[in-house]
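Researcher: For the record, we're logging two predictions in this thread. I'll number them. Prediction 1 follows.
Model: Prediction 1, sequence and structure:
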Amino acid sequence: METGLLQFYVGDGKGKTTAAVGQLVRAHGAGLRCAMYQFLKARPSGETEALGALGIPVERADTEDTRFVGEMSPTEKGAYLMAQRALYTKAVHAIRSGDYDVVALDEILDLLQLGGLDLDALRMALTSRPAGVEVLLTGRQMPRKLWDIAGYVTAMRAIKHPFEDGRSARRGIEY
């Protein structure tokens, strides 16, 4: 691609990761080289299996902890965020490497919100990427400081969700 843009999928609604996966599948089908980096996720999920079957690599942090960060002790949280930052370093390398045309950074905005990344460093990594690399970013909130560099911003808004009725996440639907 001549010009890669930044795509942001944000909000409290379901579908941010699904949108990024759909974009990766479309790009892969058009012959573009794709990769996904998933932050803050450890549980096996349908999207990682599907992307892997297509030959699209998916990397996660080297941690098996499936708890929410708020459930961790300060020491556990520190180790967990260190593993997430190591994944971020790999993702930035992938973006800059020239090996990929489209790179998804799933839940990176939530990692940023948790204080696991520096906003200015992320902005610099995004703005200094090679011109032809498209980057997809997901998360609940998009900092205003990233607004001016975005090519697309799509908001998913929750109107009703089965969690409100006490239903658990279902494999293949929510993960």
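Researcher: Logged. Prediction 2.
Model: Prediction 2, sequence and structure:
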Amino acid sequence: MFYKPDEKKKYLKDNLSSKRYQHSLNVAVECRKLAEKYGEDPEKAYFAGLLHDVCKELAPEEQYRLIEESGFAICREERETRSLWHAVAGAYFIKSVWGIEDIDIINSIRFHTVGRAGMSRLEEIVYLGDLVSADRSYKDVDKMRKLVYTDLDAAMLEGFVFSIKSVVKKGGVVPPCTVEGYNFYTRLIKSDKK
């Protein structure tokens, strides 16, 4: 597939706040670097990272309409958590509106907020690229930035721990796929140590 990020940048610039647009550019750059480090297609990773928040600032009703139309499996916890809708909506949007059929790109956008067990390398890259992009400033972000370039599996596990703690602290519900992702990477790391 030939990726045309410049065509999509105009749409993003016109439909996202300047802060969200800059975040999308930062995530794209981070995804490219991670792809180079971990042997993935850098341009595909840049493209997926660029598009990860394509529907982030759509009206909630529009996001919900897209997730309902998508036909994607969506758990109750995702339906109940408005901040997660944009990922499902974005995955469906790039497929239905822009005709992007690459399942790896679709899934990398679909799961960039909740994660899941058995993520592809591109999905991991977009998940982590979003977590450590240049505009992120949460506590221990520098530690996380080092980890993503030294041990991808450990970084994924740390990402799940961070995500689950954040949701629990806010009194939210944790999607089963997030718990399954946490369990997957916990077991993976334990089996590597045997």
